[in-house]
Design brief:
single chain, 173 residues, two-stranded antiparallel sheet, 8 helices, 2 strands, 50% helix
């Protein structure tokens, strides 16, 4: 057993616990595919494509890879839109520039919020639904998505009230 312990310590020294891509820190103790899929804008399919392009085993621990391999993965993530067909990107024909890009991390959240604000500003149907806080994509709203408290019978509350009334009556007697 004492022989195995030094080997584990050496493995821990080689492990890079955090890998930085863009403005996000990825977990280096997980596999390449799982670690990449934690990044906003990168799902399992995109992570698998990036691992194949980098010629890395997708089940390998991300933090144990060599520095040059990690740099190659980072570069592939940043230039993902250039490597894949247009239909695989998450931002096709941008409204302002007309370019096709693949947004990741905080950039994805920023552009999404800007799109929603633009829809609200021009008062499109989707923008009006966003303004009112209603469902946007055609879902049913008759019985779901209610935010105004409880509708219907709350049995627990009724039982508590009855118990309080019974206790008040016993105190009066």
């Amino acid at each position: 057993m004492s022989e195995e312990e030094p080997q584990e310590q050496e493995d821990d020294e080689d492990l890079q616990y955090f890998v930085r891509i863009g403005q996000a820190d990825l977990d280096g103790t997980k596999s390449v595919e799982r670690s990449l899929s934690e990044l906003n804008g990168v799902g399992r399919r995109t992570a698998r494509i990036i691992a194949e392009e980098a010629k890395v085993d997708r089940t390998a621990t991300f933090g144990r890879l060599d520095e040059d391999v990690i740099e190659e993965v980072v570069e592939l993530v940043e230039n993902y839109a250039d490597e894949v067909p247009e239909w695989l990107t998450n931002r096709q024909r941008d409204f302002y520039t007309g370019e096709t890009t693949h947004e990741i991390g905080n950039d994805l959240q920023l552009t999404r919020q800007q799109d929603i604000n633009r829809m609200k500003m021009i008062d499109s149907y989707k923008g009006a639904r966003h303004k009112r806080g209603q469902k946007v994509r055609g879902q049913r709203t008759k019985s779901t998505g209610r935010t105004e408290g409880t509708i219907g019978v709350n049995v627990e509350e009724i039982r508590e009230e009855q118990a309080e009334e019974a206790a008040a009556e016993e105190d009066d007697e």
